[in-house]
Amino acid sequence: MPVNLTEPTDIAPVAGVQLQTIASGMRYRDRDDLLLMHFCEGTVSSALFTQNKFCAAPVLVAKEHLKQASARALLINAGNANAGTGQQGLDNCNSSCQSLSQVLDCDPQAVLPFSTGVIGEQMEMQALSSGITSFGDAAYNSSWVDAAKAIMTTDTVAKASSRTLIIDGQFVTVSGIAKGSGMICPNMATMLAFVATDAVVSQTVLDDCLKRATDASFNRITVDGDTSTNDAVVLSATGKAGHALLYDSSSDDAKAFYVAVHDVLLDLAQAIIRDGEGATKFVTVEVKGGKLQSDCEEIAYSIAHSPLVKTAMNASDPNWGRLLMAIGKAPTKYFDIDVLNLAINGLALIERGQPHPDYSEEQGQREFQKEEITISVDLNLGGESYTVWTSDLSHEYVRINADYRS
Amino acid sequence: MPVNLTEPTDIAPVAGVQLQTIASGMRYRDRDDLLLMHFCEGTVSSALFTQNKFCAAPVLVAKEHLKQASARALLINAGNANAGTGQQGLDNCNSSCQSLSQVLDCDPQAVLPFSTGVIGEQMEMQALSSGITSFGDAAYNSSWVDAAKAIMTTDTVAKASSRTLIIDGQFVTVSGIAKGSGMICPNMATMLAFVATDAVVSQTVLDDCLKRATDASFNRITVDGDTSTNDAVVLSATGKAGHALLYDSSSDDAKAFYVAVHDVLLDLAQAIIRDGEGATKFVTVEVKGGKLQSDCEEIAYSIAHSPLVKTAMNASDPNWGRLLMAIGKAPTKYFDIDVLNLAINGLALIERGQPHPDYSEEQGQREFQKEEITISVDLNLGGESYTVWTSDLSHEYVRINADYRS
User: Fold this and answer.
1) pTM for the full model?
2) How many CA atoms lie within 13 Å of A76's alpha carbon, on the beta-carbon side?
3) Which of A51, A306, A398 sits opposite B311 (nearest CB)?
4) Is B206 a member of any domain?
5) CATH of the domain at B87
6) Among A274, A299, A318, which residue terminates a domain?
7) Has the ipTM of the complex gone over 0.90?
8) Which residue did the predictor score with more confidence, B119 or A40?
9) Across chain A, what does the average pLDDT equal?
């Protein structure tokens, strides 16, 4: 059961973007599992990929294609990651781009492929090919929510988000979808996310915008500390909104555009945590007062990755000793126990390194029982801070991941 | 259910060491939970402690005492960690050392205190004090196995090991006990271990011996990547064996002594993994062929810490894609996918970066189903290697850690 997350509604279409989903039958039955996102000519795209050294075939191909041409189409399949598949996996991936390029009458390099699902199995090429061919008859009648549904694997709720803003007197839309609920860890990329806008944006501004917004959203969420071989986030701008080109990141319009992109990415990132495998809590870990931002980051992830903290959260057990453990084991540079404060949902647990005299187990229990939990650490040493979002560790997480392939 | 681990037998007594356990009633009912390990005069001790910055009160006190006096007694309680207890916790700890020193007629600084159990609760001092007082009537009739039992918390099997060797024509014994099954991560210290020997050893040789043996044993095991606030390993040499003093680590006798200590520590370390919280598998992760040892270590821990790998192990699922994921996300310096080999229990999965042509899911299933699993990674880049030991991640782990305090 996702934590305070429901099916998205009101996802605005983006001028210049056409969507079509189909059921290829490759792995799933009775659902769409193949998505085509088709962009108009002149679309500018930016993308960030997993830092895992075992990149899946589609990641290798998409990176290469991005260097060679402007993307006209994203081809995304759910159910098979085409990772750990060696040369055959690469050949299969290239051949599916080739097929789609014939259908759409564009360069094969203008097709970016993305896959998510099981690692280590070859794609069922017959099903994939006939799926791709059927896009030739596509009426482009799929919605963004349909698109979000077609890329789900262990997700239980489709993830999409949308913002509109006015630039230069013109309405601009930013809409996006994402999938992912396990193998989620920071450092790009930890899921698939596809965001499009009709804004008129230069490549430089788009790259800068995506990089910064990803650092502040997808790179700050963790379910299990594991980084997938496949993940990617793509931001494409069709330029259909008709305002003056955004070419300077420091302009007011570019800043407003950044905020809209950031908000969509943060919505999607938090949705991934809320739908985290087996999640029953949505946990915000905020660390402030650091002398170095990296110290705050180390502590935030030490807490967010600790299985002992995450099982205590799951049990609604105010076992704050485990929080101290996780804070203390982080490899921080500047740290002083005697000035540290620790609170949960604003309830003080530790003040200047000592147990807070007014704290009672009963109060603690009340806060730990909530579905939305904010753990606040104040190092009281400086002005730096860092926030990450995570979920708890439940029986359900083990069940999902022990059973995923069977 | 521990993995291929049974109650220890044949733990040889150590001349110069007297053991007594009692039931203080502090937390547990109907079992001993307080251990006194009493050393003869002239005993030399070496100790290593947790690197967690939130040291428990007994860790702070024991470190201080070690600087001031030769240890004559170890006082160990199970059930309450006396961590996160602020100034009162320190006062309680000092007062219990004081009480025991009166009973034993030694300096308070000659008492080293150790605690394990729940964090964040004050010790029940009345029960502890009366327990300590009752040591005054002690007959010292407890065995090493009794001692191992008295320090258990979530352990399901007592952990003890023993070796004998001959130095200089004299029989020498090394015996030790340990506790720990969760909050286990490398970098000293990840559990409590108390090892004693009647060897005649200089402080320098003893320190060197403990450091090296710990690096090769306790610092290479991980259950959940979490490092406790309390943990410690102590090696004490009573000198009762009567051989010539070992004062040079490079002498043959010192080397033989090191091997015995190393073997006892490795037995205890592996016993902790075999009894890991909810463990159903004993997993050895060996990485070789690295250009840097640190690269091998990063990959070994990336695999051993990955919840996705650990749940796949639990399910006996030959989902080796998750192994690739864990290898690829490690922050290695030298790494080349195209020469990498991967095998499980000797069965080749990946050869020079490609799926092995002869591999079948059926063969994989057979190996992943075993209780003892060795994951072998060969980087094929150099001569360095690193091995760690870990367990799988099960429903039981979540149950134990979600319920521990209730």
Assistant:
1) 0.80
2) 30
3) A398
4) yes
5) 3.60.70.12
6) A274
7) no
8) A40
9) 90
